[in-house]
Write a structure and sequence with these properties.
single chain, about 375 residues, alpha/beta, eight-stranded mixed beta sheet, five-stranded parallel beta sheet, 14 helices
C-alpha cells in the first residue's frame, strides 16, 4: 500500500542507502537520499515526515540525530546501526531517535515492521493536523523572488506580497532584502534606519528570533517585519553563504512566511537562498528578451546544481494588450507553472512609488488599484498552499 509520507534517507554507506531506498519506495514515491553533509540543508529546505539515519564511520551520528530533531521535532526518526552497541543505542535514543535497528542482523525485522511504523505515524500526524487551529512554528515557508532581468518589478512584487500576506492572515511574516549592494526595499516603505541584516553577523553562531527582531524594522500598518540590506558594496563582500544559510534557517524557525527579495545577478548568496527556498517565484515580463534570460537562468541553475523542479513558478508581470507576447502564447513555451498574472498599472502604481507608500495599508480596503487586486489574489493563493 502506497503512503504519502515524505522520506529522507541519510547514509554514507552505498549498500545501506540502496537497501533502505528499496524498502521505502515500496510505500512512498517521495523518497530522497543524501550524505551526512547535506542532511540539515535538506531538512531545512523541505519538511520530511520520516528520516532514516544510517550510522557513519565517525561519531557524527549522535550529533546529526540531535540536529535533525531540533530542525523538525515532529518527524519520525529511525536509526540504523552497523553493530549492536548499548552505549550507542542509549545515546541515540537520548538524542531523539524513535526506533533503533541493527543492519544486517535486523534487516528482515525492519522490513516487516516498517509498514506498521509508517502507518502509525501517519495516523498520529493526521490527528495532530486536525487539532491544529493556528499557524505552527519551527517550519516556516521560504519564498524567494528572483528575475535574471533587471527592472522586472521583483522588489515591488516581493514587498507587496509580504505586506498582503500579513494583512490577509494572522501569520508571522518577515521580508528579507538580499540586494546587499544597493538595497531597494527601504524605498518601497520609506524606511530610514541605520540597522541592517549585516548587524546580525557578530551573533551568527547564537542567532535567534530576538536578535532578528532587534535588527528588523516593523512596518507600521501591517506589522510586517523587514530586514533591510546594508546597501554597501564593501559590507556586502563580507556577507558569506554560511551567514545567509543560518539567517534563513533561523527565520524559518521563527516566522510562518519568509520572503526574500534577490538581486538579478548570480553569486554565492543568491545560490544559497535559492537552495534553501521552498518556492522560487521568477518574475517574468512577457517579452522576447525576458524569455531568453529565463532560459539562460534555467541552464545556469542546472550547471550549478540548483533544484528548480516542483519548486519554481512564474509570476507574469505587466500584462497588457500592447505586449509583444501575450499570456496565451506562453503556454507552449514555459516549462514551469504560472503562479500569478499581474496587470500593467502605471497610472495606479505611480503615486504609491513616488511617495514610498505600500499599495495596501489595511485589511479591508474599499478601493484597490488593479495591481493591488492581482497581488491580493496571488497572496491568497499562497496562503491556501
Amino acid at each position: 500500500m502506497e503512503l504519502s509520507a515524505n522520506i529522507l534517507i541519510v547514509s554514507e554507506w552505498e549498500q545501506n542507502t540502496v537497501l533502505l531506498k528499496t524498502i521505502s519506495e515500496s510505500f512512498s514515491k517521495q523518497v530522497t537520499s543524501v550524505k551526512y553533509s547535506d542532511a540539515i540543508r535538506e531538512m531545512n529546505r523541505e519538511t520530511r515526515d520520516i528520516v532514516i539515519v544510517s550510522q557513519s564511520e565517525t561519531e557524527a551520528s549522535v550529533e546529526l540525530v540531535q540536529s535533525i530533531r531540533m530542525v523538525n521535532p515532529a518527524c519520525l526518526l529511525l536509526f540504523v546501526a552497523v553493530a549492536s552497541d548499548f552505549t550507542l543505542l542509549r545515546n541515540i535514543i537520548r538524542s531523539g531517535a524513535d526506533e533503533f535497528f541493527v543492519f544486517p542482523d535486523e534487516t528482515s525485522l525492519f522490513t516487516s515492521r516498517f509498514p506498521t511504523i509508517v502507518q502509525n505515524y501517519e495516523i498520529k500526524k493526521n490527528s495532530m493536523e486536525e487539532a491544529a487551529v493556528t499557524y505552527g512554528r519551527n517550519r516556516g515557508q521560504i519564498l524567494s523572488f528572483y528575475s535574471g532581468k533587471g527592472g522586472s518589478g521583483r522588489t515591488l512584487i516581493a514587498s507587496s506580497v509580504a505586506q498582503t500576506l500579513k494583512l490577509e492572515s494572522t501569520a508571522e511574516v518577515i521580508l528579507i532584502d538580499l540586494n546587499t549592494q544597493y538595497g531597494g526595499i527601504e524605498n518601497v516603505f520609506s524606511i530610514e534606519s541605520n540597522r541592517s541584516l549585516a548587524d546580525l553577523m557578530p551573533v551568527v553562531e547564537e542567532l535567534n528570533e530576538s536578535h532578528i527582531r532587534n535588527v528588523s524594522e516593523t512596518q507600521v500598518d501591517s506589522k510586517l517585519e523587514i530586514l533591510i540590506s546594508p546597501c554597501d558594496a564593501e559590507i556586502a563582500e563580507s556577507i558569506d553563504e554560511e551567514f545567509i544559510a543560518k539567517l534563513i534557517r533561523t527565520c524559518r524557525r521563527s516566522f510562518d512566511y519568509v520572503l526574500i527579495d534577490l538581486p538579478s545577478h548570480m553569486n554565492g548568496q543568491v545560490v544559497t537562498a535559492l537552495e534553501e527556498s521552498d518556492k522560487v517565484f521568477y518574475i517574468l515580463a512577457p517579452e522576447t528578451s525576458a524569455l531568453k534570460t529565463l532560459k539562460q537562468f534555467e541552464t545556469l541553475s542546472t550547471r550549478l546544481g540548483i533544484p528548480l523542479a516542483n519548486r519554481m513558478e512564474i509570476v507574469l508581470n505587466e500584462l497588457s494588450k500592447e505586449n509583444e507576447v501575450q499570456q496565451s502564447d506562453l503556454k507552449n513555451v514555459l516549462r514551469f507553472p504560472v503562479a500569478a498574472s499581474i496587470r500593467r498599472d502605471i497610472k495606479g502604481l505611480q503615486p504609491y512609488i513616488n511617495k514610498g507608500m505600500p499599495v495596501r495599508k489595511v485589511q479591508k480596503e474599499r478601493k484597490l488599484i488593479p495591481f493591488a487586486k492581482d497581488i491580493r489574489k496571488f497572496a491568497r493563493d499562497v496562503l491556501k498552499q
